[in-house]
Amino acid sequence: MSVPVVCIIGRPNVGKSTLFNRIIGERRAVTHDRPGVTRDRNAVRTEWNSRPFVLVDTGGFLPESSEGRDADIRRQAEAAIGHSHAVIFVVDALTGVTDLDAAIGAQLRRTGRKSIVVVNKVDKPGDAIVHDFHRLGLGDPMPIAAEGGFGIGDMLDAVLALLPPETDVEERPDARVAIVGRPNVGKSSIVNALLGEERVIVEPVAGTTVDPIDAEWKTDHGRFILVDTAGIRRQAIFDDQAEFFAIMRALNALERSDVACLVVDSKQGFEKQEARLAHHALDAGCALMILYNKWDLIEDREKAWKDITAERARRFPTLSDIPSHPISATERIHLAKLPEYVAQRATENSRRISTHDLNEWLNLVQKKRGLPSNSAGKSPKIYYMTQTGVRPPTFTFFVNAPSRLTENYRRFLWSHFTEHFGFKGTPLKFKVKKSE
Fold this sequence. Notes:
CATH topology of the largest domain: Rossmann fold
Shape: elongated
Distance between the termini: 51 Å
Radius of gyration: 26 Å
Order of helices and strands: EHEEHEHEEHEHEEHEHEHEHHEEHE
Oligomer: single chain
């Protein structure tokens, strides 16, 4: 991407996610008073003084880790540093310089990456503890309080001074694609397979992904942004409070996406939770498609596919026409076709229909079934309709008396509209506006 990248690193629990949230001005990363909550890179495009940059949050940095989750986090933090133009190294004023801080500082010096040391949890200017961090050998440390906002502006001014001159403006992606589904259906494996790198931590346990992970995906069919999300499950009380906030954030990811890929375990099938997620995606304005993952584990695939689609149509008839595809992230079955499928979904969500074609259809459908009258014998009159938006496609009917247009007739219009124009798996919106 053409905008520079700035990553936040530091040992666990020094306030990296709090600083990340403070800079971008929203609760994007999961914050929690327990080490190890931020487990994957979390990147978002933001700006300071009209200068755009990508800010990357990382998991707790443990440079000596060689195995397990800490090693995964270390590798991803190192990858973030390697792709960054500047590094914000966060340390904790309450603990002073630790052996881990010294080890991180040494590794950062070896990379030669431009960086600043920020001393978090400083209550007031002139705190003498800040000088203790000069021995990290990374220049003058800057005091901040991520929670309260002290020193953030000065810190960001210093960050901008480290960045290269502005170049070309970043182009808009063709679509943002949310990868959603219940825990452990293979969402992160799909993202890694598509990107061809270990971008998201994959573990054989549910709930590994905590934050939505944005990653650029360049294909022959367009440039997309993949958003991998925490597994969503229906449960009144969550064992892990951090998981609860992560799930809320996953639903928010749908709100900022254009296309949703609902991942289903082929062996478990499409259940009520998948139906709920499908409706969440459509309500959020996402063009939807269903990916039946782990297809390599299915025997007699032709018969299985007929059974799977028939069962979904029987149990959830309103979702029977959603475009669906069998895939395997591990064996790469049909993965090469996904860019084309995503591009089709994005195109449908941006599709426009001329006012002439819309009103030709409106005349035909009203001849097929006339507008019903109310108890007073009065019926509404639809003058015309036009398209008033995309992503999702939005259509407005101009009616003399909107209150007389019954819910049954609106459903009739909806049914015949989708039958005539298509838009399978696309979240159409119908609006009614009063017109004399």
